[in-house]
């Protein structure tokens, strides 16, 4: 079939626009297997320029739909005009489109001379390579990684073993196996079908495997979701009001729960600048009732360094400083002179400093917990720094930036994956939702609605032990991928030398 027609360019764009439907909140997960197969078919045996273009169109469609919520944060809360917000969002999406473009280009180079079925496995490895690069390049944007779409499928059993990147690889190999089913061949077709069936059966069997075990007693938890407007979050005139709302909502909880948690930057004033009487009252109540109060708050000195932090009040005070900051949202990754040129993009409190890479987990209610703030929980390889010592995951987030978009649902899906990878229960406190208590299999024990002022209560069970992913991280998957890609590269060099 002649695939040089521009209609295939449109097809690539549409495929990219459809792939986000495989993720939360719609969770049409078969798309995450079918769509890569179709993309492999479109770019197979294409000239390099054509493969790059179609990969780019696919990527542009993927992030234009799947990450469109970036526009809301810039437009509504970045104090920019709609045209400027649109232009910045377009630039962001255009940049992200380069990753699928490069994966497609590399795929056709490395798959030179291979059959479609064999080439599909090469394309799968190239996809994984650039998904991984996207997860760390320029601080990383590991959103919409293919593995997340399988959180409700039998394949999720692979997550505690190989992590989300391993799950992406399994999914992509299934897509490649589907490519091997056509044209039908006596040997290859049954083999490919057997691989697909075997992966699903293996994943399903792994879902019931317990890599960790209970330790200690369940902990009673209360999460305060005040759901206050984001637009007034950093208004100096609203600081005291917001502090009082959290304090008043927490008042009936003292002594009834072992942990009371407020979300990321629940207090919108530096902890050091907050009224001493207010802080002392919270600390005294925490000690008197033997309750750990966990608060998200800026911490430090505005004239030197300040951090996005989680502090613990009570009998054992503690603090954690966010290590992985959001570029342009929490800090501006530009030289000082360039920051002034970018002054039109004015997100408040965008001068945070990074916390130390090596920090202790938080001791809360007698348990060591693995802390993360907002999108830090998208980086599983960083969260396992606190394990296996940590027995519970704890995260404070603010998804109010993104309104009623898919962002909060996608973020919750990511948080569920971290619980599965580590086989730990998770406490997730957010400003406007979705707050949740998540079990070690990624299932929601309790959760809130978006933009609901409420208190979420329940228990979490500490767990000890280590999954294979906690022990080895992404290394097994990355080493396998890089060895195979290197071998393919050597093959291409040898072909050109002939």
Automatic annotation (TrEMBL):
The lineage of its organism: unclassified sequences, metagenomes, ecological metagenomes. It is found in: Cell membrane. Keywords: Acyltransferase, Cell membrane, Lipoprotein, Membrane, Transferase, Transmembrane, Transmembrane helix. The chain crosses the membrane at residues 12-43, 55-72, 84-102, 114-133, 153-175, 187-206, 472-493. It holds the Pfam family CN_hydrolase. It comes from hydrothermal vent metagenome. The keyword Transcription does not apply. InterPro entries: Apolipo_AcylTrfase, C-N_Hydrolase, C-N_Hydrolase_sf, LNT_N. One of its GO terms (cellular component) is plasma membrane. Residues 224-462 form the CN hydrolase domain. One of its GO terms (molecular function) is N-acyltransferase activity. This is Apolipoprotein N-acyltransferase / Copper homeostasis protein CutE.
């Amino acid at each position: 079939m002649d695939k040089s027609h521009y209609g295939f360019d449109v097809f690539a764009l549409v495929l990219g626009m459809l792939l986000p439907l495989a993720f939360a909140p719609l969770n049409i997960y078969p798309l995450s297997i079918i769509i890569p197969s179709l993309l492999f078919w479109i770019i197979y045996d294409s000239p390099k320029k054509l493969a790059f273009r179609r990969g780019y169109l696919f990527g542009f469609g993927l992030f234009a739909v799947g990450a469109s919520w970036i526009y809301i944060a810039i437009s509504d809360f970045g104090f920019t005009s709609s045209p400027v917000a649109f232009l910045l969002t377009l630039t962001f999406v255009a940049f992200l489109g380069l990753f699928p473009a490069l994966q497609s280009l590399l795929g056709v180079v490395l798959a030179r001379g291979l059959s479609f079925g064999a080439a599909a496995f090469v394309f799968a490895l190239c996809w994984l390579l650039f998904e991984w690069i996207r997860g760390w390049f320029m601080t990383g944007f590991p959103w919409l990684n293919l593995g997340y779409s399988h959180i409700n499928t039998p394949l999720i059993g692979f997550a505690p073993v190989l992590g989300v990147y391993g799950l992406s690889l399994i999914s992509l190999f299934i897509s490649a196996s589907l490519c091997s089913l056509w044209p039908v061949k006596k040997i290859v077709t049954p083999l490919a079908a057997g691989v697909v069936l075997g992966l699903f059966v293996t994943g399903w069997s792994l879902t019931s495997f317990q890599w960790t075990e209970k330790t200690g007693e369940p902990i009673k938890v209360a999460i305060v979701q005040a759901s206050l407007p984001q637009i007034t979050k950093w208004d100096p005139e609203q600081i005291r009001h917001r502090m009082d709302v959290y304090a008043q909502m927490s008042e009936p909880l003292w002594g009834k729960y072992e942990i009371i948690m407020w979300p990321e930057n629940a207090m919108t004033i530096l902890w050091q600048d907050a009224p001493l009487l207010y802080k002392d009252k919270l600390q005294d109540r925490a000690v008197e009732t033997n309750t750990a109060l966990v608060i998200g708050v800026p911490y430090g000195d505005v004239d030197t360094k300040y951090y996005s932090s989680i502090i613990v009040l009570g009998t054992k005070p503690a603090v954690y400083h966010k290590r992985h900051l959001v570029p342009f949202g929490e800090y501006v990754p530009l030289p000082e002179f360039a920051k002034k040129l970018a002054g039109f993009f004015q997100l408040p409190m965008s001068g945070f400093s990074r916390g130390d890479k090596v920090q202790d987990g938080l001791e809360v209610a007698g348990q060591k917990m693995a802390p993360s703030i907002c999108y830090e929980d998208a980086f599983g390889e960083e969260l396992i720094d606190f394990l296996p010592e940590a027995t519970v995951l704890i995260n404070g987030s603010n998804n109010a930036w993104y309104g009623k978009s898919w962002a909060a649902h996608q973020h919750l899906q990511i948080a569920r994956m971290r619980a599965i990878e580590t086989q730990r229960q998770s406490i997730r406190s957010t400003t406007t939702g979705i707050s949740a208590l998540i079990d070690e299999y990624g299932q929601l024990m309790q959760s809130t609605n978006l933009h609901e002022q409420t208190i979420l209560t329940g228990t979490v069970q500490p767990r000890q032990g280590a999954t294979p992913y906690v022990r080895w991280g992404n290394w097994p998957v990355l080493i396998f991928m890089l060895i195979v890609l290197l071998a393919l590269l050597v093959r291409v060099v040898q072909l050109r030398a002939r």
